[in-house]
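input
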Amino acid sequence: MQPISLLVTVAGRDRPGVTAVIFAALAAHDVDVRDVVQTVSDRQARLAILVDLRGDPAALRHSVNSTAQAFGVESHVITAGPDAHVVHSVPRSRSRAGRSRAVAVGTRLRAGTLGDIAKRVADVGGSIESMWQSSDDTFTGVEMSLDGESSRLRPALIASVGETGLDLAVGPAGARTRDRRLLVLDADAVLGASGSFPRVAGFVGAARQAGCSIAAVGRRRPSDRADLGLDAFVAMDDVDRTLRGLATDLDLPPSRIVVVGDPQDSTRLLTAVGTAIAVDTHAAADVPGEPGFLDSALYLLARI
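output
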């Protein structure tokens, strides 16, 4: 069946959970998300989602409109052309201590996965202040500015990796990707699952070109550390002390630490740092010619 492009817009007073229920309504239908923008200004929220639907537009329209009406917001569903896109006019968010930034990425976006992320944010008392889509030739990502307590948002979002099929990065809103950073790899979770030396060496080289110093922590020291181009390897001890020690050795503040790990195996590391990149190393090993979690991690590193 040839998909039909539809533009779904929702507007009204910002309320916790609205984004999650709209995506849940879309998830009841066979749709791929092509583009998305959400903004909140003066407590008024606007959500625009461009989808490709394989099914009945009338049924989807009824689902969205009835859900929006139940939450007291307005909605419209119109047919869009194959080259349509959503205007990305994301306002600069206010700077305050409660804000975080997150990026979720996959080879395709489904409404149910984005709804799951939105629900997790709402369940811990957070809200999505703005959301917009970014992509390259391989991946499609959604970037979000979040309000809420970071100590609750971070573990909730990290836990979504693996369950949603999307890899994810989360960190403070004020981070600047052009600043020199320390990239810390969970050697046991990431290096052991990456499949081949050339893939790891290529990942390390690309991260270094992005302005990162690279270290690894874990129980097993890689025998080819010098060939991989790592600046340091340390055995895991106390997580905070280990990370702060690495930052001190490389003359960087702890706020510029970025950890790459798996949400199942690297929880302590991922929840202890300024920025966490959580990739599902159990989904599939990185193999030549196919995008894998190392490619996903580089995508996230460039955008968080």
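quick obs: The first helix runs from residue 18 to 27.
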